[in-house]
Structures are given as structure tokens and as C-alpha cells.
User: Fold this.
Amino acid sequence: MLKKFLTVVLPIALPFLVYWGYVMLARWRARKTGGVERDIPWPWAVLTLVAVVLMVSTLVGYRVLDEQATPGQQITPERLIDGQIQDSDVVDRPESPREGRGAAGE
Assistant:
């Protein structure tokens, strides 16, 4: 559930929440300084920065949180066994008879 929240809900909702917070802050500043609320500038730079940060954090998160396997290992994906979802595993790959031989088939 947390993985779905971090990878689906948060990247979609966060730019809207940041923009909403920015608008509230700009309205508060306009009221405090005596300006007009319509003078709030469109925050293209802020929204672009938030989008880039979210994109980079998502890519880094996938790299860090994803299962990593070395060349001698195999990733077994999530599967349904007896009505239960089994987590993915990183297991050692059994050596085939072809591995470890020379080019001449020694």
C-alpha cells in the first residue's frame, strides 16, 4: 500500500498541493501588503522545479527500492500461490551445463 502511495498517488497529487500552497501564500502576502489577489504571478518556475524534482526522485526511488540482482542471480516476480501473493525474490540461478565451458566444448 505504501509503495502504491509513493509511486502513484504522491507524484500525481504533489504538484497540485504545492501549487495550492503557493497560491495560499501569495494571497496571504497580497492581503498583508495591500496588493490585489489578481496580481499573483503564474508559478511556472515553481511548477517546473517541482516536476523535475518529482521525476528525479521517482527514478532514484525505483533504482534504490527495486530488487537488484547480480549476473549470477535471477529475479522471481510476485506471484499468486494458494490465494496468497508471494513477494518477489532474488535467487541464485542454477548453472546450466553450457556455462563454464570453453569455446571448443571441452
User: Anything to note?
Assistant: The mean pLDDT is 77. The helical segments are 2-33, 44-65.
